[in-house]
């Protein structure tokens, strides 16, 4: 079996880097962003493309990375002379841009305005239904051609989004470790390289070292060295780490939690953070390790219990539905180094909830 590592062709990170976006795109562009991000960035992007004598067509993203939305945007793009797809904004916008580029056989440039997930660097789009329930993973043959991180813009986003990104990144090392132990394949269909596993561990170490410091800075909308490090951890280290290291229980449990209406207000990384605690209970990790993860989550405001996520009344039938969806055929939870059943997941959810509430 081959060892495989996946990564974007180019990763750019720095203050004010969005002003240079046309220099990196170097083609006529179809650009998607939601209404808020469009208002925030359009003038900067238009000036960049004008300065480079390139065309840029903007279209508003409607908010859900669904097959319906992807097809709608592809139909609009067909009427323009676009040579590259650019996604500007958060995870669902970026995943939609990647899907559009894939189906249109065009290159894609990803320009996050937040560091709330590890989606930007991956050869993956997570598709949801129009109602926001997890649908499927769209596995792409290539990673984005470019990822451009303007830390000046990202540092001004709500601090909760940076914390959510840390929740998503928190799972990276533990899922990669589980995949290594089980011999499971990564998202590229191969075994993880030593580089991928090292990046996954560096991601976790960076979170523990700089996460709380970064949150304090982000709450004041300033960019310190800790914020720079966490943006890289949330985006690049976690992106390479999860994709080339592999996914396991934490993200599958996230997918299961999408059936709970009470959790629909949560960001992706907030649910993944709780999923990470559940995975640690599922695999009977040491109490020292669980405590380090638990107190990290508490210190930066990530949920550690069902109540923290808005589930004020325990409905055991609904929790079993969560467990069953987490264990659906093809789910990444089956990359754990032991057999996983809905009953085991159900038990781990209740145990993690009890400990996180304690």
Write the layout of secondary structure elements.
Blueprint: E1 10-14, H1 21-25, E2 29-33, H2 35-51, E3 56-60, H3 67-77, E4 84-89, H4 91-104, E5 108-112, E6 124-128, E7 134-139, E8 146-150, H5 151-154, H6 159-182, H7 194-218, H8 225-245, H9 249-257, H10 268-282, H11 287-300, H12 316-326, H13 342-357
Parallel strand pairs: 1-8, 2-3, 2-4, 4-5, 5-8
Antiparallel strand pairs: 6-7
Helix pairs in contact: 3-4, 6-7, 6-8, 6-10, 7-8, 9-10, 9-12, 10-11, 10-13, 12-13
Q: Describe it for me?
A:
The chain is of the alpha/beta class. The protein folds into two domains: 145 residues, Rossmann fold (3-Layer(aba) Sandwich); 196 residues, Up-down Bundle (Dehydroquinate synthase-like, alpha domain), CATH 1.20.1090.10. It is built from 13 helices and eight strands. Helix 4 links the parallel strand 4 and strand 5. The longest helix is centred in the middle third of the chain and has 25 residues. The termini are far apart.
* Annotated CATH architecture of the largest domain: Up-down Bundle
Mean pLDDT across all residues, rounded?
96
Q: Quick one: CATH class of the largest domain?
A: Mainly Alpha
Shape: globular
The gist of it:
It is built from 13 helices and 8 strands.
């Amino acid at each position: 079996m081959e060892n495989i590592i996946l990564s974007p062709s180019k990763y750019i990170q720095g203050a004010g880097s969005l002003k240079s976006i046309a220099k990196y795109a170097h083609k006529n562009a179809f650009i998607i962003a939601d209404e808020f991000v469009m208002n925030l960035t359009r003038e900067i992007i238009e000036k960049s493309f004008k300065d480079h004598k390139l065309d840029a067509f903007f279209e508003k993203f409607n908010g859900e990375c669904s097959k319906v939305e992807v097809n709608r945007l592809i139909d609009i793009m067909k009427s323009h002379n676009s040579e590259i797809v650019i996604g500007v904004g958060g995870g669902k916008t970026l995943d939609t841009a990647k899907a559009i580029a894939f189906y249109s056989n065009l290159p894609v440039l990803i320009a996050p305005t937040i560091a709330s997930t590890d989606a930007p660097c991956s050869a993956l789009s997570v598709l949801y239904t129009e109602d926001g329930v997890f649908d499927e993973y769209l596995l792409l043959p290539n990673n984005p051609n470019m990822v451009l991180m303007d830390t000046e813009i990202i540092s001004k986003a709500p601090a909760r989004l940076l914390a959510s990104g840390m929740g998503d990144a928190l799972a990276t090392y533990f899922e990669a470790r589980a995949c290594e132990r089980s011999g499971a394949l990564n998202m590229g269909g191969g075994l993880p390289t030593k580089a991928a596993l090292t990046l996954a561990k560096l991601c976790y170490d960076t979170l523990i070292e700089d996460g709380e410091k970064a949150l304090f800075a982000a709450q004041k909308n300033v960019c310190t060295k800790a914020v720079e490090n966490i943006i890289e951890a949330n985006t690049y280290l976690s992106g390479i780490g999860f994709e080339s290291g592999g996914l396991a229980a934490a993200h599958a449990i996230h997918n299961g939690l999408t059936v709970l209406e009470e959790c629909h207000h949560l960001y992706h990384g907030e649910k993944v953070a709780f999923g990470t605690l559940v995975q640690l209970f599922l695999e009977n990790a040491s109490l020292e390790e669980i405590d380090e993860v638990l107190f990290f989550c508490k210190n930066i405001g990530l949920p550690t219990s069902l109540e923290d996520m808005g589930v004020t009344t325990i409905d055991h039938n609904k929790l079993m539905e969560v467990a069953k969806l987490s264990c659906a055929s093809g789910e990444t939870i089956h990359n754990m180094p032991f057999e996983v059943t809905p009953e085991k997941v159900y038990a781990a959810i209740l145990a993690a909830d009890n400990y996180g509430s304690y």
